[in-house]
């Protein structure tokens, strides 16, 4: 028998249950996958607490890596024994498991240069970083960005990638320790939002001009400060809502603050096209495999400790990436 984390109602971390499950054989277009490592993402908490509504009961998690054990009829993109990783949304829900059935379409073959643990720690964060750096804005050397949660999983990858592109990176953090981590991974400056005014400090660091782009994964608590940190005609990228949804606002506000642009992208729309997903994954794997970008796995959990993992994540005790090791 396999094991999986499931939940029967929405709520806090305590709704998660570690159970035995019967996996069965893959149907048409499916594979049976044995997991080696599973990713822990903040998006998981949105499924658990009901922010992302899904039918109940359901599985938890959208990202993992492992080995293909069996394939169903019509599967041609992978073979038995292939090392693979995946991430997605509803089409990959159920990753918190030792073994599972999954559609073959989301699977990405892993090069030998990438370990299972690294893959589980970076597939969602890495592909997110890849489209943020390569699809959202036409960056030029010398451009500036404001990166919220700079010591988080996406933050550490984006800051390293940004330096490869020659960007000036200003990161925000909540503690001095996280500030040191962010500086060590490419940030040129850090702002501790616990006791500094972010927008004011950004203006000081940019000679009053502001940054070209803000990557804001925090949401409600940082929204106005992010807008006030942008240069004229700058781009606000809302990539998450860790503190809650951004408040309703009149679009005229964007004009009042300098004819700003704003987008709320979703990874699913940047990996829906197989060719684009392959290109984004290929560039990510090349950077990581060569050592130009390092993936920091700072928390390891057993799958049966999912409740504690979610508590740690929501209390902001984690830095870098977190994974479950099977």
Automatic annotation (TrEMBL):
Any Gene Ontology CC annotation: cytosol
Q: What is its EC number?
A: 1.6.5.5
Q: Does the keyword NADP apply?
A: yes
> Per the record's keyword annotation, is NADP included, yes or no?
yes
Output the PROSITE patterns linked to this UniProt entry.
QOR_ZETA_CRYSTAL
Q: Which reaction does it catalyse?
A: 2 a quinone + NADPH + H(+) = 2 a 1,4-benzosemiquinone + NADP(+)
Q: Which domain of life is it from?
A: Bacteria
**A Pfam family this chain is assigned to:** ADH_zinc_N
Which GO-annotated molecular functions does the record name? mRNA 3'-UTR AU-rich region binding; NADPH binding; quinone reductase (NADPH) activity; zinc ion binding
What InterPro entries does its record include?
ADH-like_C, ADH-like_N, ER, GroES-like_sf, NAD(P)-bd_dom_sf, QOR-like, Quin_OxRdtase/zeta-crystal_CS
Listed A to Z, the keywords are: NADP, Oxidoreductase
Domain Enoyl reductase (ER), which positions? 11-324
Homology family: Belongs to the zinc-containing alcohol dehydrogenase family. Quinone oxidoreductase subfamily.
Q: PANTHER family annotated for this entry?
A: QUINONE OXIDOREDUCTASE PIG3-RELATED, QUINONE OXIDOREDUCTASE-RELATED
Q: Please report the name of this protein according to its UniProt entry.
A: NADPH:quinone reductase
**The organism's lineage?**
Bacteria, Pseudomonadati, Pseudomonadota, Gammaproteobacteria, Pseudomonadales
